[in-house]
């Protein structure tokens, strides 16, 4: 690990770590777990330990005379002999001779761990923050790019996924006065995944968050926050989702030194029935819908 302080306003950091990732004993044992006859887990005594290499670099520069700063970050993770699961779906009754002639029923899944090769990902980002005097705001701009190379098994098929993940984030923190403050952030991401055995996937996502606080008087205050999530799977035209959430509150500080707080709040004013999130991974996109309480006070 190296840290270099060029001055009070320029800091350089470089870190490298390496560690072994050992498989658990049950994965190495030449046994078959058959507690669930339709989900069989087989050990692999030829399994090799994986090794993880991590490199992190950052260089931060502050410019007090211009009320601005520049941060650069680069990180990389490399895993050799990565351990992944391989699942084989048995179409008919099968005798597993390698595991004591176990009789597996048709429709069972046979899962085993195996070394799939080298997995690596790279993430690079630059953040520039500056004072924008006309609206008394701190503005931050962050372009970033990530790349994931992931060998894995999708069922019984060996697949290599290459995920390209550019993104751009803008944030604004402003104090119009001592009484009114506003924070806004917006992030746009695009994901393109190339697969060797399955269909390539393209998707775009947008997230906008706004938080406002208003100190009405010495004791009274109000706040509101709004969240928008938009997701569009460009590969499958029917996979598009939008989610809105708006919360607001009115409160009063009570007792000596304003130590107490009485507040009435309305959650999910737009009465959204479900919250939606999309997690882009190297070999798939996972969409999650979670039930909400709906509007309540």
> What is the number of helical segments per DSSP (H or I, 4+ residues)?
1
Q: Secondary-structure element order, as H and E?
A: EEHEEEEEEEEEEEEEEEEEE
Number of strands: 20
**Spatial sequence of strands, sheet with the most strands:** 1-2-5-6-11-12-13-14-15-16-17-18
State the separation between the terminal residues, measured CA to CA: 51 Å
Oligomer: single chain
The residue ranges in which pLDDT falls below 50 over 5 or more consecutive positions are none
Question: What global shape is seen?
Answer: extended
How much of the residues is beta strand, in percent? over 45%
Q: Report the mean per-residue pLDDT as an integer.
A: 89
Whole-angstrom Rg? 26 Å
Question: What's the story with the biggest beta sheet?
Answer: 12 strands, antiparallel
Can you give the helix content as a percent range? Answer: under 10%
Structural class: mainly beta
Describe, in plain words, how this protein is organized in 3D.
By secondary structure, the protein is mainly beta. The model has no long low-confidence stretch (mean pLDDT 89). It is extended. The strands form 4 sheets. It has a 12-stranded antiparallel sheet, with no helix packed on it. It has a 4-stranded mixed sheet with strand order 3-4-10-7, with no helix packed on it. The protein is built from 1 helix and 20 strands.
Kindly list the characteristics that best describe this protein.
297 residues, 12-stranded antiparallel beta sheet, 4-stranded mixed beta sheet
């Amino acid at each position: 690990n190296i840290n270099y302080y060029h001055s009070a306003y320029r800091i350089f950091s470089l870190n490298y770590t390496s560690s072994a990732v050992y498989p658990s004993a049950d994965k190495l044992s030449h046994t078959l777990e058959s507690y669930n006859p339709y989900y069989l887990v087989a050990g692999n005594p030829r399994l090799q330990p994986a090794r993880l290499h991590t490199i992190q670099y950052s260089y931060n520069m502050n410019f007090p005379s211009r009320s601005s700063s520049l941060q650069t970050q680069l990180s990389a993770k490399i895993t050799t002999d990565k351990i992944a699961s391989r699942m084989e779906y048995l179409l008919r009754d099968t005798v597993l001779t390698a595991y004591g002639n176990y009789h597996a029923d048709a429709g069972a899944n046979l899962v085993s761990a195996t070394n799939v090769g080298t997995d690596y990902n790279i993430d690079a980002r630059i953040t520039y923050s500056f004072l924008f005097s006309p609206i008394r705001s701190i503005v931050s701009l962050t372009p970033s790019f990530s790349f994931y190379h992931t060998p894995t098994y999708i069922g019984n098929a060996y697949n290599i996924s290459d995920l390209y993940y550019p993104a751009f984030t803008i944030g604004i923190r402003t104090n119009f006065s001592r009484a009114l403050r506003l924070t806004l952030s917006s992030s746009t991401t695009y994901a393109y995944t190339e697969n060797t055995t399955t269909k390539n996937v393209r998707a775009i996502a947008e997230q906008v968050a706004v938080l406002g606080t208003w100190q009405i008087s010495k004791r009274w205050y109000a706040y509101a926050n709004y969240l928008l999530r938009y997701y569009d799977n460009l590969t499958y035209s029917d996979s598009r989702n939008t989610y809105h959430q708006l919360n607001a509150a009115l409160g009063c500080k009570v007792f000596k030194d304003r130590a107490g707080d009485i507040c009435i709040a309305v959650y999910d004013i737009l009465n959204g029935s479900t919250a939606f999130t999309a997690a882009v991974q190297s070999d798939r996109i996972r969409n999650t819908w979670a039930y909400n309480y709906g509007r309540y006070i």
